[in-house]
Amino acid sequence: xxxxxxxxxxxxxxxxxxxxxxxxxxxxxxxxxxxxxxxxxxxxxxxxxxxxxxxxxxxxxxxxxxxxxxxxxxxxxxxxxxxxxxxxxxxxxxxxxxxxxxxxxxxxxxxxxxxxxxxxxxxxxxxxxxxxxxxxxxxxxxxxxxxxxxxxxxxxxxxxxxxxxxxxxxxxxxxxxxxxxxxxxxxxxxxxxxxxxxxxxxxxxxxxxxxxxxxxxxxxxxxxxxxxxxxxxxxxxxxxxxxxxxxxxxxxxxxxxxxx
Length: 260
Ligand SMILES: O=P(O)(O)OC[C@@H](O)[C@@H](O)c1c[nH]c2ccccc12
Fold this sequence. Notes:
Oligomer: single chain
Largest sheet: 9 strands, parallel
CATH superfamily: Aldolase class I
Bound molecules: indole-3-glycerol phosphate
């Protein structure tokens, strides 16, 4: 069982998402630590990319802030390095394929291993195109987290059977961002198909923001991923940001712990 898979043992994992360097280096480090200390089981850290095709307005705006702050891949690794001085919280990167490609797959995955970054979510890299990066991800024990979308159809079993770490089930079509109407029954059907071919944990993301939604989804999934709603709190930039994040994580954590 991979390190990430172990995180899901006996609990529903909460996986909040942040954009690295939004709005700056220090705040990102502090935000990760606050999320970790108050219940985040895995932190998904986005490496900003200039053409984030799967991202909605909230995350795109956060990416722009990070670019203004001067973000680049090395700096994202330095953020993790800083976090590692005080925290072992599991971290996965969300990034588009061009970022590790330009950095060099070997060097990128090696640095992930060194900093204990356990997985990569790469929305523009379908299973069929993983070839090259997979060689290095395997070499350095970094899990490539596959995405399964409502459009995955016949490919669900094949994607699931090849998965390590966890499987990211995308709740709805379109781009990232808060939604009120999630098709729980349809998601459950997808998850049942996945469970027939693998024991790898399944986490749901896209559109989730409220404790009520999280609670409902926790009855069918092993993990809950929340991005835009967390990024919105960060980008409001209130002085008591750390308290706001703390309250948010605690509420979600509590909601998903009362699993039926
Ligand atoms: O923002 P949302 O709707 O809560 O969705 C999660 C999400 O932000 C995070 O996992 C993510 C950020 N960018 C992505 C691109 C593709 C898939 C997933 C993501």
